[in-house]
Amino acid sequence: MLDQWLIGIILVAMLVLFVIDKWRYDLVAMMALLSAAILGLVPTAEVFSGFGNAAVITVAAVLIISQALWRSGVVDALASAMKNIGDKRWLQMIALTSVTTICSAFISNTGTMAIMIPVALQLARSSGNNPSKVLMPMAFGSLLGGTITMVGTPPNIIIADIRREAMGESFGIFEFTPVGLSIAIAGLLFMWLLSHWLVPEKAGKSKSQSLYDVSSYLTELYVPEGSNFVGETLYELENRSEEDFVIVALQRGEKRWSAPARYLRLKPEDVLIVEANAETIQQVIDGTGLELNAEEEIDERFLKSDDITVIEGIVGHDSRLIGRSAGDIKLRSRYGINVLGVAREGQKLGTKLANIRFKPGDVLLLQGDAEVLNDVFQRFGCFPLAQRSLRLGSPKQLIQPLGIFSAAILAAALGFISVPVAFSLAAGLMVITNILPLRELYDAIDWPIIVLLGATIPLGSALERSGAADTIANAVLYVSQGSPDFVAVGLLLIVTMLLSNIVNNAAAAVLMAPIGISMASSFGASMDPFLMAVAIGAAVPFLTPIGHQSNILVMGPGGYNFSDYWRLGLPLSLLVSAVALVMILLVWPLY
């Protein structure tokens, strides 16, 4: 009984820290594992056994394959076809959500959304529609798509491996399809018909432009003869103001530098194009003797040149920018990048940009060298929103990765080799054939997820070994006492779904699966419907933006608030739960 209390305290503390989100979830999970090991709840020989678990290897392989397919342009080929679907919002909704759902069945949700969000924004802006109406349904569609196959989402991979350990045989790649495809179709139909009334249309934001009206903040400053700042550097001038004051261009005669280097020294008759509000401009003029120059209308052409561009990007869920500011990482001095704007929940933040500590879902407007910007996005875990050239490969380049991926699926589905071996082999072939360059191999793996899984799998075993899983299962059975047996399956599904909205869905699957197995044992029933309920519940967190990376990615571009998600997410969750329960019991009978 003491072991049950100890593992319960550790797991509750872990979940609370997940919700508080002060430390990243992989660190929290590792600390929980080490605490359990110190208390003797996890045997010494099994402390790090999770990192060699087949599910962890499979997740890593699937992430590598997803990156290779994403890089080769497979999803881009589908996205490029979206340009011809017309201006009708309902038609755009159907096309965008369908493609997102289908791709997410085989490729990582995050990778799919990274490609489809810019496509959706481009369509919305060209047609005058509000992107907020379609971005949330796209994110939910990516979650629904992940339920269709075993490789669509980490919870399915985890549940398949747990079944292998418990029964000696894993779920097959397409054994999730009858249930997953049913809820995907039901969910899509529901969103096509009703999301117009359930998804808020964000006001105060242009439907045809980005989150920022940069030109309204651009001003020309003229450097007169005899100015005290002649011969001084741009760095010294920028430091004269404590407020937002960014030099975005320098005009000297016929020559113009966009995003000029901070070491450039001012000369007489230079014209500076700066981004700042009127109050800051007046402060700079008063303190430097520079003059306001308004001989021509200023627009965003000053922000760009042959090498310099302006691009919007979303701060990802595991970005290295989270909790840090542009000043902390020296974006301006180290990378030559200007932060022109930061938007959070659809509203531009007006405080000093260099000091804003970034959060997941923030939308950044950055100016700098195009190649450097691309490297910075990859280095810091951000996703570009700009219209960019699609990575469309030649037919040979598209056929090769699709052929390798299809062969892996076929070999695993027919039972020639196991799923972990098939997908590890496919990942290796993607690298050997240079579809995914070797230098990008380890960048393709979401390491926090790998650490989370490696740490929580032994904790899940400890939950079962201590008897705590049986105790929780008996409590659930007591609540459902007197009801038909399928009610217990429904309760398990709903509890797992609620848990996945506040913690990582992979962790939810690991922790709830032992409880599902104990419930099945208490009933004397098959464990398959209980495991399938956990898989579905963990994969579809629709109620909060923190439930999944896809939800976070659309938060900034859609201008959503935290409370906006449940308006569509709650009825969709109820529908998915009902359809999933019926299909689970039809495909996987209790007895």
From TrEMBL:
Keyword Oxidoreductase: no
Subcellular location field: Membrane
Record has Protein transport as a keyword: no
Sequence ranges assigned to domain RCK C-terminal in this UniProt record: 206-290, 297-383
GO cellular component: plasma membrane
SUPFAM superfamilies found in the cross-reference section: TrkA C-terminal domain-like (SSF116726)
Keywords, alphabetical: Membrane, Repeat, Transmembrane, Transmembrane helix, Transport
PANTHER family for the chain: BASIC AMINO ACID ANTIPORTER YFCC-RELATED
Protein name: Na+/anion symporter
Species in which this protein is naturally found: Idiomarina loihiensis (strain ATCC BAA-735 / DSM 15497 / L2-TR)
